[in-house]
Design brief:
With about 220 residues, the protein is mainly beta. The protein contains 3 helices and 10 strands; from the N terminus they run ααββββββββαββ.
Length: about 220
């Protein structure tokens, strides 16, 4: 597991051009409004003291698959279709991230579970870069019941159903909830969100999507 103090997603527009920063200040702009000038769907709710009181979402788990690295992620409801590369930890114990120059690339924490296998798989990606929105800029629009499909090297596809979407301040990132094994095949998809902090050069929060394996093919 990555070190608790460094397990947030280190992404966001610290490298955005000056013109784009003005847009990004508004809750990541593209993350919430898709850059189209419309209101779109509301962002995921902030974590509250009674977060555990949310109504349960019925899930029937599919049997776990053998481990196999992911090669592609598709999220039909937000039009994501991207290759997946492996990510590790740097010398300081930080979870690395995909190159900022790659607009349509997600990363998988390869020291964790493989998507579809027993355990909690973690996939992350950037919300934007110098040129504008990137792979997960619409991640905050996901809702419970949406699906995430991950194709693997063994040519199997793991289908996950979203059960929760939340925004967590980076100062209170729920490391255990995100990375810890639950005894079931689960998935976490992460990107940056919240407000853009000019001084820090990035967003102040992370969007965390929780999903459970419900089908394989």
């Amino acid at each position: 597991m990555p070190r608790a103090e460094h397990s947030t997603v280190r992404c966001g527009p610290g490298v955005l051009t000056a013109g784009a920063v003005a847009v990004a200040v508004l809750l990541g702009g593209w993350l919430v409004h898709d850059g189209a000038g419309t209101t779109g769907s509301p962002p995921p709710p902030p974590v509250a003291a009674d977060a555990g009181a949310r109504s349960p979402f019925p899930i029937a788990y599919a049997p776990a698959l053998p481990p196999s690295p992911p090669t592609r992620i598709r999220i039909p409801s937000i039009k994501v279709d991207a290759p997946v590369s492996g990510l590790g930890l740097d010398a300081a114990g930080h979870l690395t991230s995909p190159p900022m120059t790659e607009r349509n690339l997600a990363g998988w924490y390869r020291d964790g579970a493989a998507p579809g296998a027993d355990g909690t798989a973690v996939v992350l990606g950037h919300v934007d870069n110098r040129t504008g929105p990137t792979v997960f800029h619409r991640l905050g629009l996901l809702r419970r019941g949406d699906t995430v499909e991950i194709t693997r090297q063994d040519h199997r596809t793991a289908v996950f159903t979203v059960t929760d979407v939340r925004t967590h301040p980076k100062t209170a990132f729920p490391t255990e909830a995100v990375y810890a094994a639950t005894g079931h095949p689960e998935l976490r998809v992460l990107t940056c969100g919240g407000r853009f902090d000019r001084k820090a050069g990035g967003y102040d929060s992370n969007v965390v999507v929780t999903a459970h394996l419900t089908a394989t093919r």
